[in-house]
């Protein structure tokens, strides 16, 4: 079932990218999807039924807006710090306890943090994520955890767990 779902997902992506339904396009897409499924199918999501839950798509759609808003705020914050005459930065690496258990959820969180200006994910070790932050404003783990990944983590858990 996992391989079949992965094949269907790849064919759907092929049709979305090519936007062609002619025979030659379907044959090439089918061959590419079959080869990719044969090689990488074992790494595909184990719980295929999760793909059929509409609530996950709703939270993913909502997450796009949340991420865009957080990214815009971070861009303005970094621009302020760069343009300020005294360059108010206080860089450091912070350690945050993760509440996400799935590997794909952790990867999504790490990538979201890295794509937000002012923060870079350094490493994930067991249940902790290490982040380089351009302005460490507090030493309280709860406060900086909420500032850096609080909103991301909430929505990512709803999508992937």
Structural notes for this entry:
This protein has 161 residues and is mainly α. It is built from 5 helices and 3 strands. The protein has 2 domains: 48 residues; 107 residues, no CATH class. Strands 1-3-2 form a 3-stranded antiparallel beta sheet, covered by helices on one side. A hairpin with a 2-residue loop joins strand 2 and strand 3.
What is the fold's blueprint, element by element?
Layout: H1 2-18, H2 23-40, H3 54-83, E1 92-97, H4 103-115, E2 119-125, E3 128-133, H5 141-160
Antiparallel strand pairs: 1-3, 2-3
Helix pairs in contact: 1-2, 3-5, 4-5
What distinguishing features does this structure have?
3 strands; elongated; 161 residues; 2 domains; 3-stranded antiparallel beta sheet; mainly alpha
Summarize this entry quickly.
The protein has five helices and three strands, in the order H-H-H-E-H-E-E-H. The two termini are 20 Å apart. Helix content is 61%, strand content 12%.
**Spatial strand order of the main sheet:** 1-3-2
Per DSSP, the total helix count is 5
What string, H for helix and E for strand, traces the elements in order?
HHHEHEEH
State mean pLDDT (0 to 100 scale).
88
Give the terminus-to-terminus CA distance: 20 Å
Largest beta-sheet characterization: 3 strands, antiparallel
Low-confidence segments: none
Class from helix and strand fractions: mainly alpha
Using only C-alpha atoms, the radius of gyration works out to 20 Å
Helix content: 55-70%
- What is the tally of beta strands? 3
The total number of structural domains is 2
Based on Cα principal axes, name the global outline. Answer: elongated
Q: What is the strand content?
A: 5-15%
């Amino acid at each position: 079932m996992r391989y079949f779902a992965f094949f269907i997902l790849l064919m759907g992506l092929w049709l979305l990218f090519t936007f062609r339904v002619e025979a030659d396009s379907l044959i090439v897409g089918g061959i590419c999807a079959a080869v990719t499924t044969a090689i990488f199918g074992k790494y595909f999501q184990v719980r295929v039924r999760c793909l059929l839950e509409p609530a996950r798509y709703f939270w993913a759609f909502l997450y796009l807006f949340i991420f865009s808003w957080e990214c815009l705020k971070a861009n303005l914050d970094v621009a302020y710090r760069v343009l300020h005459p005294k360059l108010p930065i206080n860089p450091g690496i912070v350690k945050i306890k993760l509440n996400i258990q799935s590997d794909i959820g952790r990867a999504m969180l790490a990538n979201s943090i890295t794509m937000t200006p002012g923060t870079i994910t350094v490493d994930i070790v067991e249940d902790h994520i290490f982040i380089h932050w351009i302005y460490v404003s507090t030493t309280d783990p709860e406060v900086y955890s909420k500032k850096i990944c609080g909103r991301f983590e909430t929505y990512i858990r709803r999508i992937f767990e």
